[in-house]
Design a protein that fits this description.
Layout lengths: L1 E6 L6 H9 L6 E5 L6 H7 L16 H8 L8 E5 L12 E8 L2 H14 L3 H10 L2 H7 L3 H7 L11 H14 L1 E6 L3 H11 L24 H10 L1 H20 L3 H11 L3
């Protein structure tokens, strides 16, 4: 028995992907993990404190989550764990754990995450965005989120090693431990290659879910874009690295362009 673990990074097409994964008959057991946001987020985001590294503490697993994940060792058949958690849940398992995840252009991710929280009815999200105010302020607080999640260290303020070493460790994880990394800007291609990597995923047809309802999105000021790029250099480097890995997989895949062409046409209907 194997465990497949989908690390759902916010605003990377995860709601759509989870709907695809839930209908796969090969997964005999499915656990969706949605840990609570660390309360320390609110205290930090309300403060005027400036640090040189990562400010944002990601969602952390509860004791109940730990227990539920550990129980998967006792299930028969292949299992799937998916949700907003950091890399590292394999440490709770005895069976083989196959990770996969999706990344997104860091600039559009930060903007989309801000807009999502701005629209969210969740009291925490409402209070969080209200405490920050503008997209500019939000982008100053939330930095390198994708690298942080995949580093396995949800609390970066406690990490004493250098930024670049953390980035290299995550790159190594993408190459060796995380079996597949998709790119949201290449979503259809990513799904085709994900299916090839994991034959247990048989059907990848989909309809986009959790889309931004705004038909006309506001133009983001160039100074804000520049600020986001400056504050997310680790994520930008990681994203480019992952994109190169994906394109190499596509190049080595047989009839990949043909598969992509037919998939795009059939998925319209």
């Amino acid at each position: 028995m194997s465990v497949f673990a989908y690390i759902h990074i916010p605003k990377t097409g995860g709601t759509t992907l989870k709907s695809i994964l839930k209908r796969q008959s090969g997964f005999k057991n499915i656990l969706e993990v949605n840990p609570l946001m660390n309360p320390e987020n609110m205290d930090f985001l309300k403060s005027e404190k400036e640090e040189s590294f990562q400010h944002f503490r990601y969602k952390t697993l509860t004791e109940e989550d730990h227990e539920n994940i550990s129980k998967f060792d006792n299930h028969e058949g292949d299992s799937l764990i998916m949700g907003h958690f950091s890399y590292g849940i394999h440490n709770l398992l005895k069976n083989d754990c196959y990770y996969f995840t999706f990344l997104r252009n860091p600039v559009t991710l930060i903007v989309s995450l801000y807009n999502e929280m701005f629209r969210s009815p969740d009291p925490f999200d409402v209070a969080l965005v209200k405490s920050i105010g503008s997209l500019q302020e939000f982008s100053e607080k939330v930095r390198n989120l994708q690298t942080m999640i995949l580093s396995g260290n949800p609390n970066w303020s406690d990490v004493k090693i250098s930024k670049e070493l953390i980035l290299e460790n995550v790159k190594s994880a993408l190459t060796n431990e995380i079996r597949f990394t998709g790119i949201i800007e290449q979503y259809d291609l990513s799904l085709i290659l994900l299916k090839e990597e994991f034959p247990i995923i048989e059907s990848i047809w989909y309809k986009k879910l959790n889309k931004n309802p705004q038909k006309h999105r506001p133009i983001i000021d160039k100074s804000i874009i520049a600020s986001i790029e400056k504050n997310n250099q680790l994520d930008i480097k990681l994203y480019n690295f992952a994109k190169d890995l994906l394109l190499k997989k596509a190049h080595s895949s047989k009839r990949c362009k043909q598969k992509l062409f037919y998939f795009k046409i059939k998925n319209l209907f």
